[in-house]
Write a sequence for this structure.
């Protein structure tokens, strides 16, 4: 019998986590990975910091290069190879070598789809003009960094006030570029309740970003092939650089064309072992649907953490180690200047959509003891089920030391704890780290009083 | 019927939290609090930072002054009044007014003992010499700060490498004082496993502290009433300032004399509602025994967080709001220079004492993404039950951003989660905050592999 062949589509976090896990458990398996770009296992989340100049070289974002996979792990990584079709019936994929256009079939015993996500870009011809950037892969991050160096833009406009929008705003301000941000909602960070989003908006303004809320992109003005202005439904903003931070979508077209069933937001539907509904086809990372652990509903959570976790889970199950992925909480964190922003679980809008009878409490406290040098403001918002007190979600905006407190809330959500449990919890305290009642607990106390 | 009288012994965190909670729920209750010292509701944990000069004035450490309790909350606080006897049969206490020595009886319907803790001092006549300080109450903190200003000591010796010892070492080094620390154990921080304690020892050395481990205090040399050297079982260390950080003990002599039952380490035994075994007598704060939530055994946990929590719980139950205190995890945090140190749950020695079959894993990771500026080393150690994988305890030593991660572990311990649960947990990630796998999860992954 010949060796079992695993084909992996996509050479970033999910795909290569899975490949590495398979190799760890099975030294014999033939593992072949195809990556459309030039890079493997790069930190996509680090691209804004490359643009900011905080990370000196693109190579610093690469956790493991293709040759390292080849030489140390016997994983056959082929970069600049695009899989253009999947044939589940015959268990093979059609591959195009991008260098010379050569196409060939590759058979598989198991196939792992780890094609990631794609940035949403406006359906406008001018969106392809020079100076307009969307962060798709490391190559796009490198192109942006090069454009910043070569074109030396003076005025930038960011479309979209999500994670990428905020991180790029910080990056551009660090470079001293005059920066405007256009966001369609009433506050940036629509994964936060509007009261907390307002604090995030404020952090942008404090950084010197001109903020245009409740405003929609209408088009671009270009000159000699390069962008010169962003047109919104309310004004024209001069710009020699534009960042598209309009969200992402699962890169699932290849799966869809092969008849592999999709779910929420056209993400590939998988079971907790990362199997799709098509035999011998697995999927992991930014292209899959996840279970939300609080709502019990399917959700789309495209994050590096989830990609690493689901890649590892796929690899374990591919080698016979039965392991289930329990799902996500939608935990996320970012920063704008000194302001840290984090969230986990359900926000008010999601609770309402689920028909949950919930209560919310929001408090203002301090990151350290009030008398300790460097103490800063922190706002914590908690949501809980009105009947049972069970926590549903949490949001944090505050100075240094605020954001990672979301993990305490994430742990509580994981375990299905109540606001009372959080009040009773033995959290750490010393003046350089916290008031006696951690702000997370202060929010829980107010929640108890109000429920 | 006359108003019900609550008498509180002790005007700091536990006593005044209880008094405030009672007042909130019962506007009619007569509340009388006796405090031996001059201050109420002060942050005892802030005293090292007062000594360091990081907190400018002692008043900054006072959360609420006696007159505020009197005027805004109608709580009759009497400072410089010492309760010298309790008569549970006749429900009265004997009070001595320290100003003029006047003594009187005060009747109570309910009595709350919140007498706190006392520093352990060596049984040596020379320990009372000038220049030898133990941090007992705010007055002792003020006396130390004054001595530092007036005597301008050049060489200090700290006895004991626990929290106070480490925080005072940092404080004295900040003042540029040549500092030695003498500790009887093989590493400082005996609440950490020795491998982690070694990292704490290293942090002290990095700060320029001369560290003498496995060495015991033998005595002091004095001159004209002031200390001039510390004598250990191995050497004589010149010192014009000495800090005693030899631990604390519950201040329970008054309760013991009244026949109120004591428990572990002579701490007052209470039920989860903070009732002692003597009718109408309650206790809270640093003088009580607590339940350890992981071991299920009684323990002594003298911390500001526990004092605030148990004071509040006593106040709720005193006003008919039945609330149980579920106990402690022994969570604690501190810092030495830039090194943060935290722990929660059981350490190896405790697991062994309980006869638990446990497994431990210790990892070295980074506080931020490896490529992000300011990333620093972090060590995480986790302990879990070998059979079930249930987490038993955690310890962290690392750079800025490390310590508060202990709260994630504390939440997991609270909920009885396993190492697998921690690996699966949706914790927050962005390059300025964490590697993709939070170091806490990396430790859990290694623990899984080794169990």
């Amino acid at each position: 019998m010949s060796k079992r062949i695993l084909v992996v589509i996509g050479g970033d976090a999910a795909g290569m986590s899975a490949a590495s896990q398979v190799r760890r458990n099975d030294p014999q398996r033939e593992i072949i990975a195809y990556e459309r770009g030039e890079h493997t296992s790069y930190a996509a989340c680090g691209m804004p910091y490359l643009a900011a100049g905080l990370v000196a070289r693109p190579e610093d974002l690469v956790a493991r290069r293709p040759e390292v996979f080849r030489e140390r792990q016997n994983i056959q990584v082929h970069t600049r190879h695009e899989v253009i079709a999947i044939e589940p019936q015959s268990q093979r994929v059609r591959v195009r070598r991008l260098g010379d256009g050569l196409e060939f079939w590759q058979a598989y015993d198991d196939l792992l789809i780890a094609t990631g996500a794609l940035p949403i870009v406006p359906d406008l011809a001018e969106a392809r003009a020079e100076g307009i950037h969307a962060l798709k892969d490391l190559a796009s991050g490198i192109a942006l960094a090069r454009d910043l160096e070569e074109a030396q833009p003076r005025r930038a406009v960011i479309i979209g006030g999500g994670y990428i929008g905020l991180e790029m705003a910080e990056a551009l301000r660090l470079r001293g570029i005059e920066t405007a941000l256009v966001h369609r909602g009433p506050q940036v960070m629509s994964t936060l309740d509007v009261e907390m989003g307002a604090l995030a908006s404020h952090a942008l303004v404090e950084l010197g970003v001109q903020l245009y809320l409740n405003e929609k992109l209408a088009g671009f003005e270009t000159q000699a092939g390069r962008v010169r202005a962003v047109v919104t439904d309310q004004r024209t903003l001069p710009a020699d650089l534009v960042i598209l931070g309009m969200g992402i979508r699962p890169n699932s077209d290849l799966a869809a064309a092969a008849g592999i069933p999709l779910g929420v937001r056209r993400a590939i539907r998988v079971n907790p072992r990362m199997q799709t509904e098509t035999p011998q086809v697995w999927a992991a990372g930014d292209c899959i649907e996840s279970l939300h652990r609080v709502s019990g509903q399917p959700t789309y959570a495209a994050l590096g953490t989830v990609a690493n976790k689901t890649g590892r889970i796929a690899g374990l199950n591919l080698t016979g180690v039965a392991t289930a992925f329990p799902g996500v909480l939608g935990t996320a964190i970012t920063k704008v200047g000194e302001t840290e922003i984090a969230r986990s679980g359900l926000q008010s809008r999601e609770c309402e959509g689920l028909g949950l009878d919930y209560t919310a409490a929001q408090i203002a406290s301090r990151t350290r003891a009030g008398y300790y040098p460097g103490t800063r403001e922190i706002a914590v918002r908690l949501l809980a089920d009105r009947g049972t007190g069970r926590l549903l979600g949490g949001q944090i905006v505050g100075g240094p030391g605020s954001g990672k407190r979301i993990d305490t809330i994430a742990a509580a959500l994981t375990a299905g704890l109540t606001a009372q449990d959080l009040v009773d919890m033995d959290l750490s305290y010393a003046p350089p780290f916290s008031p006696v009642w951690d702000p997370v607990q202060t929010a829980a106390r107010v929640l108890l009083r109000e429920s």
